[in-house]
Every structure is written in structure tokens, then in C-alpha cells.
Design brief:
Order of helices and strands: EEHHHEEEHE
Strand order of the largest sheet: 1-2-3-4-5-6
Number of strands: 6
Shape: globular
Strand content: 15-25%
Number of helices: 4
Structural class: alpha+beta
Distance between the termini: 31 Å
Helix content: 25-40%
């Protein structure tokens, strides 16, 4: 990441808001992904991933702390997806640089099974946000039908 790049802390749309993921989201994040494991594995980009896998709530907190530390160090950027209105956690977006690759970054996202209707709108909004507000020339982000 260019040292002078100011990392966006928020993306707001009429249907959802993205904010940096952290341990304060633990219980709601845990509920979102543990209720949607099979759905996440069918989401473009996640088909061959080793995550989600079985974790305790405390192990999940550790994972969220790691993502928050990556964000603080500018090593990677994970956002929780909060439904509007209401603020329920309905997914996550991960933006991680890909050094030594043809791509500048990889973006992954998922939404909980009960809000699968948000997957394509999330993909579109994040794709536009990355193109407009981030310093990447080429990004790997599995396309959605929709």
C-alpha cells in the first residue's frame, strides 16, 4: 500500500454499511458465519477455501483480533457488512494485497445464507468502491451472477 494512501473506514449503501471488523463484532460475526458454512463454501471465491471451519467463539475472537491488527498494520483490510437498517452482521469483505502476483489485491466477500440476496449487490458495490477509492490497478474478485 502506498504510505500516503488513506484507507477508507466506511462504505455506506442503502442496504448495508461496511466498517472495519474487530472483536466488538465477535458474537454477531460468529452467528453469521456459523449459520451459513455451506452457503459460504458455495460462494464464488470460497469453493476451495479451508475456512469456514469449526471454531469456538473465543477462537473466532482471536481471528477478529488478527484481522484488526492486519488493518492497523495496513497488511490487509477486513470489513464487517452490517445490514441497513438494523445493523445485523450479514457478511464480511476481505481486501488483501497479493505481492509477487499479476494482481495487486484479492478481494473476497460472503453474506449469511439468510441474506443471499445481498451477495450480488455487495459484490457490485465493493467492486465499484475498489475501482474508485483504492490504489489498485488489477484486483482478483470472483464475479457474481446477478
Amino acid at each position: 500500500m502506498p504510505p500516503d494512501f488513506v484507507v477508507p473506514l466506511r462504505l455506506e449503501t442503502p442496504r448495508f454499511t461496511l466498517e472495519p471488523l474487530g472483536p466488538q463484532h465477535n458474537e454477531r460475526d460468529y452467528d453469521a458465519w456459523t449459520s451459513s458454512t455451506e452457503h459460504i463454501h458455495r460462494t464464488p471465491g470460497w469453493e476451495d477455501s479451508s475456512w469456514p471451519r469449526e471454531l469456538t467463539l473465543e477462537e473466532n475472537r482471536g481471528d477478529l483480533e488478527r484481522h484488526a491488527e492486519d488493518f492497523r498494520r495496513r497488511a490487509g483490510f477486513t470489513y464487517t457488512v452490517l445490514e441497513r437498517p438494523g445493523g445485523d452482521v450479514v457478511g464480511c469483505v476481505y481486501i488483501y494485497p497479493l505481492p509477487e502476483s499479476d494482481y495487486d489485491a484479492r478481494v473476497l466477500s460472503w453474506v449469511r445464507a439468510g441474506r443471499a440476496d445481498l451477495d450480488a449487490p455487495l459484490w457490485l458495490s465493493v467492486s465499484e468502491w475498489i475501482a474508485a477509492d483504492w490504489p489498485f490497478r488489477k484486483v482478483e474478485y470472483a464475479a457474481r451472477a446477478g
